[in-house]
Amino acid sequence: MSVIMDFTKTAMKNLFSKPATLQYPAKPRLYPERSRGHIEIRIDDCIMCGMCSRACMSGAITVERDKKTWTIERMGCVQCGACVNVCPKKCLDIVPGYTQPSGEKTVDSFSQNEKPEK
Amino acid sequence: MTELLFALVCLPFASAFILGLVRSSQVRRIVTYLSTISTIGVALVFCIAYFVRGAYPIEIELSHSFIHITDMCMLALEVCLMLLIVVMSIKYKKYHAALFSVIQTGAIIWYELKSGWMPEYEYSRLYIDWLTIIMVFIIAVVGTLITVYALGYMHDYHHHHTEFKDRRKFFFAMLYIFLGAMFGLVFSNSLSWMYFFWEITSVVSFLLIGYTKTKEAIDNSFTALWMNLLGGCGFAGGIIWIGHSNGISDMQSLISTDSATIVAPVILLSFAALTKSAQLPFSKWLLGAMVAPTPSSALLHSATMVKAGVYLLLRLSPVLANNYAGTLVSLIGGFTFLIMSMLAITVSDGKKVLAYSTISNLGLITACAGVGVEETVWAGVFLLIFHAISKSLLFQTVGSIEHATGSRDIETMHGLSRRHPYLAWTLVIGIAGMYLAPFGMLISKWAALKAFVDSGSIILVLLLCFGSATTLFYWTKWMATVLASKTNDVKAKNTTSANQWFSILVHAIMMIALCFFFPLISSAIIIPYINNVFADATEVISNDNIIIMLLMLFSIFAIPAAAWISAKHTKYRKVTRYINGVNAGDQMNYIDSYGEKRRFFLANWYMEDIFGEKKIWMPSMIISSVAIVVLMVITLGGAI
Amino acid sequence: MMNRYIISAIFIIAYIVLAPFIGGLTSGVDRKISARMQGRQGPPLLQPFYDVVKLLKKETVAINHVQIIYLLIFLVFVIFTGCLFFGGFDLLLVFFSLTTSNLFLILAASSSHSPYASMGANREMVQMLSYEPMVLLTAVGFYLATGTFKVREIVMQDNLPNIIKLPGLFVGFAFILTIKLRKHPFDLATSHHAHQEMVKGITTEFSGEMFAIVEISHWYENVFLMGVIALFFINANPLSILYALIGVTITYFVLILVDNTCARLKWKLMFKNTWITTAVIGVINVFVLEVITKGVI
Amino acid sequence: MSGVSKSPWIMHYDATSCNGCDIEVLACLTPLYDVERFGVINTGNPKHADILLITGSVNEQSKDVVKQLYDQMTEPKVVCAIGICACNGGVFKDCYNVLGGVDKVIPVDVYVPGCAARPEAIIDGVVKSLAILEEKSKNVKTYKEA
Amino acid sequence: MGERSVVPFGPQHPVLPEPIHLDLVLEDEKVIEAIPSIGFVHRGLEQLAEKRDFNNYQYVIERICGICSFKHGMAYCEALERIFDAEVPERATYLRSIWGEMSRMHSHLLWLGLLADAFGFDALFMQCWRMREKILDMFEASTGGRVIFSVNKIGGVLKDMDADMLKSFVGILDDMEKDLIRLTNTFLNDYTVESRLRGVGILSKDDAIRLGAVGPMARASGVNIDMRKLGYEAYSNAEFEIITSNECDGYARCAVRIGELFQSISIIKQLAEKITDGEIANSIKGMPNGEAFVRVEQPRGEAIYYAKANGTKFLERFRVRTPTFTNLEALIHILPGSEFADVPLQILTIDPCISCTER
Ligand code: SF4
Ligand code: SF4
Ligand code: SF4
Ligand code: SF4
Ligand code: SF4
Ligand code: SF4
Ligand code: SF4
User: How far apart are CA D134 and CA D137, in angstroms?
Assistant: First the structure.
């Protein structure tokens, strides 16, 4: 049996209840702990073996053993976590919180010599 | 007055005679120009004379001997026409036409010579009033201009169609005979005289439809003939009945009687009028008539001859009010209006659209006449005027477009405004004249709607409401097609000859002028006419609205002009069309599924599933036939 | 007499000045309520104005400049229609003028000869074909109920509100309003919503200022159409203005609700539904009215 | 305040994305994220759009489509590359048929990373575009004269 | 009757989230002829198998498509597990099946939303996607990704769901079920919706078989096929009936998918009930050698995966035949004769996924 305007009940209920909108960015979004946002490195633990770089499907990581730098193209990382899984030193983590959109392609470089630079 | 009148009737016949003889197109042209100038001149003088004499109806007194001779001549000519029809019928084996012709001519001869039923005339046989003047004006101006147009057109026509025999002599002669007959028809007050001219127009139409002598043309011409002759039988029957039972033999006496006994004969006359105006169920012939060269379509099958039917109805309208005859006529008219405007949606042949629209509009006039009250007659007369001019304009323009582009199909007219801007704009003026505020047809429709409501004919109101919507659709579609601009179209060479142009332009100017002078025409011509016929005429469209209409009229010229100027100053960047990102970059093509360039094409809608001839033709024929038969049986049966 | 014209003039000026604000605001409320019915927060109330301001500031691109001309004429005719209505003139004339305005919108779209714009224009024509009989019949209904086509006189009559005599026509008119206001289920030619097979239909090729014109004329048109709805309620009694306001509000709300609870129908169904509605509801109403008026008088 | 940024209309085009990002773009319109709060309307028509949200790394066949859509947008306009594919090709970087990023074809104003880009990130991207839109609208006079 | 319109449809078109192009020939708005073309999203990722380590190639495969991303990854892992002839822990098969059914739910809800959108029912679209977000939240809580999960691994899965999590998910699904009934009733009963779906795009059973339709498209034409009945992963442990319909039109396709929505809920509940404890992954050593052939039931129907390895760390060949690819044939068959307004709708009723079709 066809009903005309079957959706009315839902529509009226929606109209008179609070909207479902999360109000981002006025209210920050809370992410579950497993949420894969971006890669963090504890650079001091890194042995510059380059395993992560080879595992990375999208080639986002560059490891320069001689300069002792570990560099990640933030706009090239697909958050797959492959690098995390292969790292022998378990110095990589994938944590909630995505890289902010930007007009430039963000590249983060970490060096064992200096403070992290951007 | 009398002299002028005879001049008007005889001039065209004389021209016809000459044109029938000359072979040289040079001479033909000169004769046509001269006839045109003289006919229009005489007509104008005639109209002015009428106005100067106080604009009262005039009866032209004729001597008895003249009347007697004329009567006899007419009878003789009718016999000739009958013989012509019989011979043609036998030649082409279409015997029913001959049958109808013999019946009616026989009946009329018997009635006039033998029966003794023929009463004395109360009024003179010739009669002039404002309606006559309007018709005279239309016939003289529109009619002769079309003959001028025909000069150029027929030249091109035979240039394009070498397969047809060049029978231009015959063609022009027929056009002029027809014009003479039309003058005669509108001047006649005597029903028998009217009948005589009526027959001539039927036969001329028949001959012109068969002009090309192709199988289709012959078939269609016979369809036209037998339907018109059937109507003629009705006419003859009506004359005899009315003469016998009411002692009436002229129109003026007829419309001034208020006896209920005239309803039956009036129905017969109306029947004749319905066939002539191609109302349902007799619409087929007018569609078939479109095989004839365009000038004859314009002249006979749109602007004038088919108007004879509604003219007769308008004349009869006082006796149509509030009786079965009127109900029959108005219902058939309203119904035809709706059905034909629906059918007009489904065709793409420009001339066919015009044909459907013609029948449809005639339907509206018929409905107005059938209701037969002051307001509807007012609207009917206006519709008649506007329709004559704008349809003639449209037919001519479409004819010229066909010659310029090789096709008269609407689908080939996309972007015509770029290729043939002048023709496109005259076409647009014609179309706008047919349905747009504030042009005349719309005003009349508006008045008709009001009048229908006032007279309580709710069914007609509905037919009009729905019919307006369908009318809107097919005209808008056409107009939008013509005005679409395909950017890479270039202006094509204008091949339309000067005489065609002259006629088209004069029509376009008349069209616009009519809109401006519409209040004047209303108060100076139509209201007096209505006053005379109905004794008192109400103000159909109040002053208030006339002001608004004029405002709208100005705005339709002023606003575009202003918009044009302001648009000129609007800065914009020319870009490609949006085609889902696969525009080939050249505006007309896109990259198709094979990676090739393909031209996109935007056809119009025809809605054949809904309004198609297959769907609605038969039912509407049946409905209208049943309506006619039932109503005729009721009244005729009641009368006998 | 003079007085009458002054009052007309005041109304006309008020319409010209206020209609965009009322129309824009209504449209804002509409969007807000729609959003809430969909469980969203929705745009700010003044969003329609922001949109138009933005459009006016944007670059205008066009296929050809006749497009702009037709659009301007369209705008003027829409305003003219409203002026005729609020000036209290003949209702039939008002509707004819409305038709003319719509014609120019169609011309503006089809003159671009662009696939989606033209298909939208074709659909717009079908829409006109669908609603036109009802529109004319509405005018006829008012005439039968009040004996006049003049808005001024319809408003001044002191019988019961017209809706009492014209319930069928009211429903019928509200029905076709879904078409005129471009709401589901009949927003075929162009839609306020993003995803339509027509892309943006009739407005596809209008950008920047041109699209702003379309939006503004839409506001004018909406106010005018709401005026027609109000006409069903208003009579000489000043209190009736209140009824009219309530009536218009309820009607509009119902239209929004319909908009949010229906799928878009196909053109054939639209055409059939509107004609049948017209032929049934409208005609019965008119016939009954005819009988009553004839019977009573 | 020029007001252009108060009514950013978006258009979305999928130039070889895997759907992941497209769906997230669409999800932004839905109740939970409701970008219409910012006046965003998802118009399918480049001639009405202010912001082009483009996903995927662009291949040979979609290249021309992307260019054309970009050209048909009216000034001021902003391009937002959504997702890693659109930023630099992501995992498909080395595929033979992709160009590897939207910026190979048209200028990109904002890169929104993520695979798939989260609705929040897309909202951030759009908000970021607004400032750029505002900036660009200052030059709109010159477009109008040109 | 005049000429016919020739208009392009797509690739960029607001009703199509993905680019596909059709050359349409129309009469009024009736479709006389429809010629499709694709290739706007072809990337060539199958060939990447020759350049990417087979272990990590999984991350490419799950990006064939963002809708049933999980299933692509899973099927790829299955294929390699077959080549290795490796055991997968039972718990892992349960987890895979649960995520698989959740994928189906999110996919069908997404589809319902898009369908509503295609026939212009915004409120319904919004409502469907609002529901869908709940499933995405479950994905994110359990795998860390809303769209691309990256939880598959050759030999098992990377992330586990503990009992609390499973319980809470079942609770969420229970709540959803009520809302879903109300929501889907609108699809099944509303007059306007029915007028858009009923009798549109009829694909007879014979045609469905002849043209090789798969998934809900085939099931809605009365063809009784569902790869889950092959019993891969943990499906043999769940009880369910294949949902079919004999109406063969758009409405039937809608109804079948709605049925599957509830079916998925039931399967998830059954599996959450029966899930066994244990490892979630076995480690796989060495290089693959040999070939394998895997068939799985995706939300859109049967997908076939073929992998050939040659003992190196790169596969020699990897090939996917996706459900949309086979359903396109049926789509082209049902388009002519419909209305222009039905075109996007019919495209949607096959639930096209161009991304996987072109890869
Ligand atoms: S998460 Fe994946 S894409 Fe990102 S750096 Fe690690 S391996 Fe590369
Ligand atoms: S794999 Fe781990 S230890 Fe090796 S380079 Fe990468 S981060 Fe450093
Ligand atoms: S970025 Fe990731 S999710 Fe987005 S389109 Fe590319 S592969 Fe798909
Ligand atoms: S068929 Fe597969 S492997 Fe071959 S080109 Fe296409 S996507 Fe690549
Ligand atoms: S695609 Fe080729 S190899 Fe695969 S099943 Fe078909 S025929 Fe056999
Ligand atoms: S896969 Fe099938 S459709 Fe494609 S080319 Fe081969 S036979 Fe033709
Ligand atoms: S059909 Fe293929 S590409 Fe589409 S969603 Fe399913 S798996 Fe993904």
Answer: 5
Q: In the prediction, which pLDDT does C249 show?
A: 92
> Quick one: what percent of chain B has pLDDT higher than 70?
93
Furthest CA-CA distance within chain B: 86
Per-residue pLDDT tens over the stretch B606-639? 888 888 888 888 888 888 888 888 878 877 776 6
pLDDT at E34 over 70: yes
Query: Separation of A59 CA from ligand 1 center, angstroms?
Result: 8
Query: What's the whole-model pTM score?
Result: 0.89
The answer to whether C151 and C85 are in contact (CB under 8 A) is yes
Quote the longest CA-to-CA distance of chain A: 75
Give the amino acid at C84. L
Q: How much of chain E exceeds pLDDT 90, in percent?
A: 1
Nearest one of D48, D58, D47 to D13, comparing CA atoms? D58
- CA–centroid distance, residue E46 to ligand 4 (Å): 6
In order of B131, E7, E14, E108, E344, the CA distances from C197 in angstroms are 54, 12, 8, 22, 7
Which chains reach chain A with 3 or more Cβ–Cβ distances below 8 angstroms?
Answer: C, D, E
**Average pLDDT for residues C209-219, to the nearest whole number?**
89
Report the pLDDT averaged over residues B503-529.
82
Measured in whole angstroms, how far is the alpha carbon of residue C39 from the centre of its chain? 27
Give the percent of chain B with pLDDT over 90.
2
pLDDT at A118: 46
Say if CB D111 and CB D129 are below 8 A apart.
Answer: no
Tokens of B509: 């100017």
Strand partners, C105: none
DSSP assignments along chain C, one per residue:
-HHHHHHHHHHHHHHHHHHHHHHHHHHHHHHHHHHHHTT-----TTHHHHHHHHHHHS--EES-HHHHHHHHHHHHHHHHHHHHHHTT-BHHHHHHHHHHHHHHHHHHHHTT--HHHHHHHHHHHHHHHHHHHHHHHHHHHHHHHHS--BHHHHHH--SS-HHHH-HHHHHHHHHHHHHHTT-TTS--S--SSS--TTTTGGGTT--HHHHHHHHHHHHHHHHHHHHHHHHTT--SSTTHHHHHHHHHHHHHHHHHHHHHH-PPPPHHHHHHHHHHHIIIIIHHHHHHHHHHHHHH-
Q: How far is the CA of B42 from the centre of ligand 6 (A)?
A: 81
Within 8 A of B461 by CB-CB distance, chain C residues are 137, 140, 286
Three-class secondary structure of residue E275 per DSSP: coil
Q: How far apart are CA E98 and CA E115, in angstroms?
A: 25
Per DSSP, what are the bridge partners of residue A110? A70
User: What's the pLDDT tens digit per position in B334-377?
Assistant: 999 999 999 998 888 888 899 999 999 899 899 888 888 888 88
As for the ipTM of the complex, it is: 0.87
Structure tokens belonging to residue B621: 């024929």
Q: How confident is the model at residue C225 (pLDDT cuts 50, 70, 90)?
A: very high
Distance CA(B222)–CA(B288), nearest Å, equals 10
> Longest C-alpha distance within chain E, in Å?
72
User: What whole-number distance in Å separates Cα of residue E60 and Cα of residue E73?
Assistant: 8
Q: Are B39 and B140 in contact (CB under 8 A)?
A: yes
Give the pair of three-digit tokens for residue E210. Answer: 């002849």
Helix/strand/coil for E217:
helix
Q: How far is CA B165 from the centre of its chain?
A: 28
Task: Respond yes or no on whether the N-terminal peptide bond of residue E11 is cis (omega within 30° of 0).
Answer: yes
Q: For chain B, how many residues are written?
A: 640
Chain A residues closer than 8 Å to D133 by CB: none
Q: Pocket around ligand 2: residues whose beta carbon is below 6 Å from it? A: A 41, 46-52, 63, 87-89, 91-92
Q: E56 is written with which tokens?
A: 């990590």
pLDDT tens-digit series, residues C34-43: 888 888 888 8
Per-residue model confidence as pLDDT tens digits over E224-281:
888 888 877 778 887 888 888 888 888 888 889 999 989 888 888 888 888 888 888 7
